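Teaching note: in complex prediction, the entire set of molecules is handled at once rather than each chain in isolation. The prompt given to students was simply: 'Predict the structure of this complex.' The entities are:
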Amino acid sequence: MKYLKPIIVIIIFILIFIFLNKLLSPKYMTDLVEGNMTYEYYNEEKNHEVIFIGDCEVYANFSPMVLYEEEGITSYIRGNSQQLIWQSYYMLKETLKYETPRVVVFNVNSMRYSQPVSEAYNRLAIDKMKWSKEKIDIIKASMTEEENFFSYVIPLLRYHSRFDKLTNEDFEYLFKTKNSMYNGFLINKNVKPVESLPTKRRLSSYKFEENCYDYLNKITKLCKENNIELVLIKAPSVYPYWYDEYQEQIQKYAKENNLDYYNFKEKVEEIGIDYNIDTYDGGLHLNLNGATKLSKYFSKILKEKYRLTDYREDEQISKIYNEKLERYNEAIK
Amino acid sequence: MLINILLLILSIGIYASFGISNLIYILFSVVTTYVAARMIDGKRADTRPASTTENKNSRNSGKWILILTITINAGILIAIKILLFGQAKYNLLSTANIIAPIGISYYTLQVISYIVDVYKGKIEAEKNFFKYLLYVMYFPYLFIGPITRYEYMKEELFKKKKIKVQNIYNGTIRILWGLTKKFVIAGRVGILIGTIASDVSFYKGAYALLAMLLYSVQLYADFSGGIDIVIGGSKMLGINLKENFDSPYLSQSIKEFWRRWHIALSSWLKDYIYIPLGGNRCSKIRNKINVIITFVISGFWHGMNYLLWGLIHGLLVVYGKILKTKWKIVNIIITFLLVSILWSFFIWPDTLTSIQMIGSIFTNFNYAEMFSNFLNLGLNLANIIVLIISVIALIIFDIKKEKIITKIKNYKLEGKLAIIGTLALIVLIFGIYGIGFNVSEFIYSKF
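The expected output is the structure of the full assembly:
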């Protein structure tokens, strides 16, 4: 056994390397929990009739627990902070490997971004995604100029400098994880009223870029191929400004592709949203109160228009959701 | 043979990737010196049986070929150094941006040494153009040296190479040690120096001295780290390159320092500048002048900004004896301090600022402030600790180099693998690299 000792040394270093990769990668458990959103989906029972995709305007504004409580709808939000449209596409593609929902709800806010925005947001969305062709594609499509692919493959290349920032969280959650979301919904109970309305800044162009349309077409095609109803929505966020020109383009696209489009900004009064109490950051996102109102309103539309199953009557699923509701109700107290 | 073909293709490819115009410059130098060397050698061969007068005429015409070739090649290097200085200092030629062909400072010295050695009859002109091309363009040393001589390299490059497992392990260890110096030490020190050099009105006095001392560490770790990578990489291919450093900061005088720092350049300057000027076979005064001229040229090789730096080093080599004490450690400290203070010409962008910074050490006594502000210079305590530990490791290595190298060479395979694994993890975790940091370029590749 001439090579036994060298082989043992190699194995030891590989194990140390794997351990350090895990230790130095952010855990996203107590701080920046948005980084764990993608991962939480993998722990779920894959039985959702509605899947939301999009940016913070979905995970902050819609509560799947309310959808279930109100109409028995099973849903999950595969959202991320600043989820760009190509990320939405690949997240949906990945989701379809696990389950085929009846409805996919896509928030169109990301149509305004045609370029990768920031490495930090990319990391929050992609870091904890399971390795698959979709992950490779999402990385390639999302990388900013300063990034490189290998740092996604070997997180140590990106997070090595965290050696001096390790906290108890890094050790506590080294081999385990916990859910911070509620079927992808991130609760925020704070209140910060809208103090001023955004002004319409002149833009050099109001036209959505071709690559955004390309990905929207891909999402549409993917849904059609899988017999999924694609529903376009615009969350009722006051900021950032949603231009009339944007609205017209989405309306036109929806009409041409025979899709439903709901701009909840136009339904604020009907929903009952009060921007003095229903937002936690001056109008960018709804708080728990606002999200509950919007979810109740949307649950009716979903139920009536898309004839979804009332899973409250399903023994097996209602058992799972009742447990979820218990946890949710505890959290929103 | 196959390895050399691959090396040549790789070298040309890598070099061309920095810009095709770079390739034109280097090929011009290669072709002119190759042709000139063949002509000089040819004339020598033609006239061997001929009369003394013919021999003399031939030698004369050979001399003119030599002078012309050196003038053209050195002229390009000199012109580029002057234009770069003019561009930076006076914004000359603002419409035509001058970018020095990468590695020109290194390969120009190599081709000059080659043509001179052929002329002197020390070596025969290489007949195979591609062999000569590989000697000049061998990519591991093309960007930061070490500057090599053809006499030595033809043996190393064109001997029958055999890939040996031991060479792979030893080469890998050397490369990783170089990467440790570059990314763990130089990268970290670079952050501190970057902060200090960014604001000359605030960071002076004690900060300036700190920057000078730190720059000694940074430059050594960066440059010798790069050379470790070059030597280690070559070692893996079975090519042994000469050492370029010999624990230079353990020198007891500036004269000794230059025997141990950037040895390839010092030895080139000695053989192709100092000795042709007369060396020490002349009057004492003339010898001193020769030394000073050699050092001024060394300064010029680094760039027009460093003429004064070269001059002072020359003076310290000539008159350094007066600073020597009978205590070894004191001599080492004095030499280190002098070298560090003179590196200031490399830290700040112009000579005047550098002089002002040196002066501020003696006029701004903000040492207490500097110590209290130390953790606000870009590195937190954890990183400072990593830096201190790694510098101590570097010092220990420099002091016990021979012992350590012999010990590692005698290690069994598992021992070598453990060193490789440990160094790789150190570089990966404690290296300064990634988003927000650009330390991939070596300081000495810009000269």
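Point out the following to students. The mean pLDDT of chain B is 90. Chain B touches chain A through 19 residues (CB under 8 Å).
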